What we know:
By secondary structure, this protein is an alpha+beta fold. The chain folds into two domains: 1-31; 32-63, no CATH class. It is built from one helix and two strands, in the order αββ. It has one helix at 2-28, and strands spanning 40-42, 48-51. Strand 1 and strand 2 (48-51) form a beta hairpin. It starts with a helix and ends in a 12-residue tail after the last strand. The model has no long low-confidence stretch (mean pLDDT 92).
Amino acid sequence: MQNKRRWLFQLSGGLLLLALLVLALDRLFPLPLAPQYSPLVLAADGSVLHAYLNPTQKWRMKT
């Protein structure tokens, strides 16, 4: 019984340590945010009439 309790304590401690490691890595190296697409002015049929640069001054169109 004592051995089983010790094993369970070590397992829960290891899982907690792993979760903290994943959270720390997410803080240090976050995944990139979704790209900001260029605003488009569309015609009634869906064709592009005019496009503007996005806030980072790049052309990014959804395809």
